[in-house]
Task: inverse folding
């Protein structure tokens, strides 16, 4: 049986005799397209010994579950719709329990080409990446941009924001077509219910995993089924912003509270400077004496927020340690 050897700094050699790939498909009323997605999943991929499919049904009202079972897929079902974020988290846990070494998440609407799974898996198999994400904005632009005006604008906006937070240069942080190593999947800590894509990026980047983007083509429109966000773009935008803000706060608390605190202090300095300027001109603080109180309040309040950032940064380090302990418990490391 073929094997891959990894050389680690301690010169202890570990051989991985086999790899299992779980292709995870979040599903909401996609009985018509599931066969197209599942049947086009590659039967063999270099470096992969076993390929299995896991369909995570998020309260579908059609025959998605029956179709998935007929196609020999593992099925995990929610009795009611719980949202894409919860569906993704439950799917990751189920895939790990199935023994996945690599997990690929792909939509069930057949907008992505299942044959591209091999392209996403390769950097992880070659030990060149921990997390591989498809990008719709690096190549094939004429094809991928068709008919997606407002969505493309929103995706590029969120990409710009996350690039600033993570000091990175990614082109697409909203695409759900991704591959995760087992270690990444085990270390993920997510909380959003409506979506997961941006929170995942922030969490993985914070943990310093190697991230690689792979350009893919994507069909401009769904063929069947109901999108988790279609018709809810305002809700999606609000939820995405909320998740990004929380992620920035949790992963970069010193920058988050530091920026906010110094901004407030800047206004305090500005009001104070205006009052001093008025005094130098008129020789009196009247009638702008209130500016002095406002300036003092803003300076004190801004300083307290900066101190809060320092405390939050300390708590963030404790959280990182706790997550590492949790990971070691999951993997039975000592």
Result:
């Amino acid at each position: 049986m073929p094997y891959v050897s990894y050389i680690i700094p301690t010169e202890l050699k570990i051989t991985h005799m086999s790899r299992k790939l779980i292709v995870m498909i979040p599903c909401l009323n996609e009985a018509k397209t599931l066969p197209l997605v599942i049947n086009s999943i590659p039967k063999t991929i270099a470096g992969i010994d076993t390929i299995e499919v896991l369909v995570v049904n998020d309260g579908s009202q059609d025959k998605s579950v029956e179709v998935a079972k007929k196609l020999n897929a593992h099925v995990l079902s929610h009795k009611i719709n719980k949202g894409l974020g919860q569906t993704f988290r439950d799917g990751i846990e189920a895939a790990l329990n199935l023994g996945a070494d690599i997990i690929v998440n792909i939509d069930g609407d057949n907008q992505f080409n299942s044959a591209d799974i091999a392209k996403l898996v390769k950097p992880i198999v070659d030990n060149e990446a921990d997390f591989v994400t498809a990008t719709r904005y690096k190549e094939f632009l004429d094809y991928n941009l068709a008919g997606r005006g407002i969505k493309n604008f929103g995706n590029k906006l969120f990409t710009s924001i996350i690039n600033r937070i993570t000091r990175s240069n990614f082109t697409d942080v909203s695409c759900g077509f991704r591959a995760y190593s087992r270690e990444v999947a085990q270390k993920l800590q997510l909380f959003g219910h409506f979506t997961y894509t941006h929170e995942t990026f922030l969490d993985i980047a914070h943990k310093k995993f190697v991230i690689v983007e792979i350009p893919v083509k994507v069909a401009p429109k769904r063929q069947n089924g109901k999108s988790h966000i279609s018709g809810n773009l305002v809700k999606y935008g609000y939820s995405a912003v909320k998740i990004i803000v929380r992620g920035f706060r949790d992963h970069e608390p010193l920058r988050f509270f530091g920026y906010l605190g110094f901004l407030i202090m800047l206004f305090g300095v500005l009001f104070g400077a205006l009052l001093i300027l008025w005094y130098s001109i008129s020789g009196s603080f009247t009638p702008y004496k209130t500016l002095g109180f406002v300036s003092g309040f803003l300076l004190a309040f801004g300083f307290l927020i900066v101190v809060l950032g320092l405390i939050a940064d300390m708590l963030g380090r404790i959280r990182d340690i706790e997550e590492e302990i949790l990971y070691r418990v999951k993997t039975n490391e000592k």
About this structure: The longest helix spans residues 290-331. Residues 1-15 have pLDDT under 50 and may be disordered. DSSP finds eleven helices and nine strands in the chain. Residues 253-331 form one domain.
